[in-house]
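Ex. 9. Protein: Tat pathway signal protein.
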Amino acid sequence: MSNPGQIDRRSLMVGAAVSATALSLGPGSGPALAEDYPTRAITVINPFPPGGAADVVARPFAAVVEPIIKQPMVIETKAGAAGAVGGQFAANAKPDGYTLLMHIVSISGFAEVDRLFGRKPKFTRDDFIPVARLIADPCVLVVNDKQPYKTLQEFIDDAKKRPNELIFSSSGLYGALHLPMALFLKAAGLQVRHLPTAGGGPAVTALIGNNAQALVSSIAAASGQMKAGRVRPLASFGATRAPSLPDVPTMKELGFDLEYYLWVGLFAPKGTPEPIVTKLRDVTREAVKTEAFEKAMKNIGQDVAYQDQAEFKAFWDVDARRIEDAVRSIGKVEG
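Predicted structure tokens for Tat pathway signal protein:
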């Protein structure tokens, strides 16, 4: 007959081994976690109104992911505060792989803005796991078709003659479309009034309605309006001319040392188990290579600029420092 003490010790050792395995896979995980995931719909938070860069990338992305994972991928819009509302919601979501975030370059500056105003940051970059970058779109300065400007210099000359008369729209204070325009205005010595909106889509709407005369937009978000002739590009913020806008000079060509990209990336909340993150990376890698996704990006004048997790994290670390510097350069701006 076995000694009861020996049985208890053996059970304890087995239990400890099982617990160690579960812990190594992350909270709520099991050995088959990566194989089982997902078992239900995945929600991707779009932190901007429809029509912005995150939205026009997230929707075709979800469409090609669904057949791969054999589950729905739902885009849920939670707009506000130039993308901070959706970012905060995702940062506080359960880290189980069923709530993800599709965000843009501005995610890097929110904590710095809070610090600028003496507030405790609502979230920081450390609250997210970068899964993959999907696109990196050089921004473009556009004016609406009611304006006479055919070149950037014509815009500059008129703005200097009429300080604080012209208006530019943006996706919100310290948002992805405010930062490059503010840096350009500072470099050119211009005084142009700011009309912050709730996202890239409303910023374009303000422009074509002539509530604003200028806007720095992603090429993707402004593509349809450029094709329709409602807005006119004057200069891009890329290191080289954009393939979809070969006749549009860069800021650097025109004498301004400015370079700015509106990239879109997929993020998971901090604490998401590594096997789930690995599965998401694999799915994303497969999805961005599909003909359907590449065609969808081409239709909005955008090339896929995919980076897997390690490469994206390295890129994000460098890019975030530049965005934080831009926020500090702009300084305190009240709504």
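Check your answer against this statement. Strands lie at 42-46, 73-77, 99-104, 128-144, 167-170, 193-196, 214-218, 231-236, 261-269.
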